[in-house]
Amino acid sequence: MKIIALILCFIYALWASPKDTLIVAVENEAVKINPAYSEDHDAVIALIFSGLIRFDENMKVQPDLAKSWSISKDGLVYEFELRDDVLWHDGVKFSAKDVKFSLETFKNPKNNTEIYVNFKDIKSIELLGAYKIKITLSQPFVGFLDSLSAGMLPSHLLENENLNTSKFNQNPVGTGAFKFEKWKKGEYVSLVANENFHLGKVKSKRLILRHINDANVVTAELKNGKIDAALIDSSLLKSFEKDKKFKILREKSADYRALMFNLENEFLKDKNVRLALNYAINKQAIVDNILHGYGFIASHPLENSWAAPKEVKSYAYDVKKTDELLQKAGFKKNEKGLYAKNGKILSFDIYTMSNDPLRVSLAGILQSEFKKVGIEVKVVAKPAGSFDYSKVDSFLIGWGSPYDPDFHTYRVFESSQDTNKSPSGWNFGHYNDKNADEALEKARNSLDVNERKKHYAEFIDALYENPPFIFLSYLDFALVYDVNLKGIKPRILGHHGVGFTWNIYEWSKN
Q1: Is the Cβ–Cβ distance between 233 and 474 less than 8 Å?
Q2: Do residues 404 and 376 touch, judged by C-beta distance below 8 A?
Q3: Distance CA 354, CA 472 (A)
Q4: Which residue in 42, 314, 364, 507 has the most C-beta neighbors within 10 A?
Q5: pLDDT per position as a tens digit, 4-48
Q6: Quick one: pLDDT at residue 16?
Q7: What is the edge-to-edge ordering of all strands in the sheet holding 469-475?
Q8: Phi, psi of 110 (to 5 degrees)
Q9: Where does 32-169 show beta strands of DSSP type E?
Q10: Which of 82, 65, 22 is nearest to 176 (CA)?
Q11: What is the pTM of this model?
Q12: Mean pLDDT of all residues in 46-75
């Protein structure tokens, strides 16, 4: 891997970074450059495509392809006035027909879209004119407006295509700030400015997004001037702190790390075992020593959301409590100091992504913490996508969305989203709790914000009583960028720091 990294560094060293070109490193690479397959608003996708609405630096909803909208008092009917001055990147005019096509595409189960659950409640879509559309839901879903930040698709290019296999997914056409130019998989995507962008002039003519998931390579490339901006691992920040060639912007996020339990595991299906494991971890030590203060202790999945309760129950670091709960579950320590029951040692695997250094470190710490109290754990590190998250004993997981609190909660914890039942679901651990289900359903369908807060508090209480995860920590991100780069604005970030390029069309070099 080190040899490959050095070769890539040599190749990219040949690149220049002219004044009218931005080169930015991003961690993840989309499988398909298509908004139907990315709820996280992947960096490339968010730059090529536009939604009906967008979010500003304060995460407030703003018009995008829609000029204005109205929502009925019962939360069922949405009417949108659309812009009439927008062109697709191929020069064809955008219209309400494209919105109708996009929404029907998102809600069609045959398309296997990642965002299906956000559009499944659409009952009807009616064109009221070339630039006006009416959408009726079968039941209220308050997060629906946020869902419409998903990029719209061009009907004239896709109406006769199989979305799953279309070449469009590798050669996309949108209405966003940048036009697709080239995708060299595993290395970079190059984009050019959209001269007709409806939100304003794009200040850099070209943008290259380099896919690099090795933190050391990112650091080296910033230092040698081959990258203009990147999110940097907090452990590597010291080399930039006194370097006058760079600025550092600390950005908050909704992104958390946790250990997901598989409730089909013979040991982890026992609630008392999961509770015991929660008490066995010193989370503050993780924040101090692994995150270097770039984060805080996590207790639940909505701590950086408006829906977060002011007071929540949490698990203190208490190994005596761990012992009490394991004894309650029928475990006793054997002659080797390991907990066992009916002749079986309490042991399980923790799977993690080998290409994510933070998760590998966290898995190692968990293994060490559990060993201290007499629980045998094996860490298995494999490349992302090389194993089935829903089949392993446990998984070092990460979630978190800065958008409506329904995002990254309903699909992750609600029992109908169990991957055994729903291919598009994210409930990989097969969590099934009636109280959590009921609270999530009420929260997503209630029109009153205070009612929603109440139901999310009930949901968080349910997670505490019957934990599906060990919530470990929330992450802050450090954006390191060339001192000559202007126009960068902070915003609360999503999973893996997604969103730091949200206004990149305003970025420019001196």
Answers
A1: no
A2: no
A3: 19
A4: 42
A5: 555 545 444 444 457 789 999 998 888 899 999 987 657 899 999
A6: 45
A7: 295-297, 469-475, 256-261, 394-399, 347-353, 376-382
A8: -65, -20
A9: 53-55, 61-63, 66-71, 77-82, 122-129, 132-137
A10: 65
A11: 0.90
A12: 97
